[in-house]
Amino acid sequence: MEIKVMKNILNANQNKADEIKQHLKEKKVLMVNIIGSPGAGKTTLLEKTIESLKETYSIAVIEGDVATDRDARRLQKYDIPIVLINTDGACHLESISIQNALAEFDLDKTDIVFVENVGNLVCPAEFDIGEFAKIAVISVTEGDDKPEKYPLLFREAKAMILNKVDLIEYTDFNKTEFDESLRILNGGLSKFEMSCRKNEGLEGWLDWLKNTHAETAK
Amino acid sequence: MEIKVMKNILNANQNKADEIKQHLKEKKVLMVNIIGSPGAGKTTLLEKTIESLKETYSIAVIEGDVATDRDARRLQKYDIPIVLINTDGACHLESISIQNALAEFDLDKTDIVFVENVGNLVCPAEFDIGEFAKIAVISVTEGDDKPEKYPLLFREAKAMILNKVDLIEYTDFNKTEFDESLRILNGGLSKFEMSCRKNEGLEGWLDWLKNTHAETAK
């Protein structure tokens, strides 16, 4: 009974996600789904990314949060459209909420939609929300064993951001083991190392976004 | 329909949790449920705690993990009973698995059971697994806004460990704001600051465990 209900939820979610994908494709909008632990640096990544791209691209943001509007408020300074989804305790976003949120944007005038998912490495990886790509964000202070311990996200992601590399010397993070576990899980993953807080090392990620958007807009 | 099923799951979980609580009380066993983000330092906390207490107390561990036995293997060196629960993708532990795991221990010869929950600040806080206390583990590198963003855990917890304080000078962590948000959420919370990796500052936490165990064993 529980299993059947869960399957129905996942099927309904996937149908809605497929509708979203089709709609975004028609509108030539790139949507990425940013997933990482609490405190991995997802909002700071968004801040620095928006600062760099907002003159060139029309950007909109969907902020997923369990309980507050803290992250959404942090992005208000950029004067871009933001929809906040408070999940009221739920641990991930689903496609029905994303569809409602997207209806708030003028997609004919939007290039990129960033979705910041709830801080969680487990459940958000299971739910397609109609994104073109899942982006895994992990910080060196979380440890090099995270891909092996939370494999689904790293298998599903098209790109991975290793954040807080400025702190690596104060940790036991083993870059060789980390890279090896990613290679085994997902050899095609695009990988970027940076310090979002210090605004260092974002170039590769920004180029990836620009190229990916160009593909989407073809 | 979904809501009703979820309620049934939570009720079934709570009934089982109540049975566990009663059983542990009869056996004078203290069980604590350790909850935190991926990489907050839960396993390292267990390592240092077991090292300090294993001569005085009979300790057993239940390790919750999405996919691997990495954390369980890290604890094998202490020659204590360990049961690994692989949730196979699920984001939290439930009381039925805990009851099965406890059946593997000789509770007449056990003083303290540590449960390391799945790395996640959201779902584990919703599920009573029969523990005497939930322990929230958070590291300074995750940021001072985590209690406000993930309030349920910090409301439910009896004790909170702020880990990786040796890294605080390299972060923007604001201790005053952090303490203030905890005070608002849960004024009765016992708070401990430490660096598990450097084995510094654990005394208050170890005293809390000793006193809490003494209360349980009365």
Q: How would you sum up this structure in a few lines?
A:
Chain A contains eight helices and seven strands. Chain A is of the alpha/beta class and 218 residues long.
Mind explaining what this structure looks like?
The structure is a homodimer of 218-residue chains. By secondary structure, chain A is α/β, with parallel strands linked by helices. Helices cover 39% and strands 18% of the residues of chain A. Chain A contains 8 helices and 7 strands. Chain A has helices spanning 2-26, 42-53, 70-75, 95-102, 146-149, 151-156, 175-185, 203-216; strands spanning 30-36, 59-65, 82-86, 112-116, 133-139, 159-163, 190-193. A 7-stranded parallel beta sheet of chain A has the order 3-2-4-1-5-6-7, with helices on both faces. The N and C termini of chain A lie far apart (45 Å).
Rg of chain A: 17 Å
Strand content of chain A: 15-25%
Encode the helix/strand succession of chain A as letters: HEHEHEHEEHHEHEH
Class derived from helix and strand content of chain A: alpha/beta
- Helix proportion range of chain A: 25-40%
| Low-confidence segments of chain A | none
Q: Whole-Å distance between the termini of chain A?
A: 45 Å
Total DSSP E strands of chain A: 7
Average residue pLDDT of chain A? 94
Task: Name the chain pair with the biggest interface and residue counts per chain.
Answer: A-B, 40 and 41 residues
Please describe the biggest sheet of chain A, giving its number of strands, its sense, and whether it closes into a barrel: 7 strands, parallel
Strand order of the largest sheet of chain A: 3-2-4-1-5-6-7
Oligomerization state of this entry? homodimer
Number of helices of chain A: 8
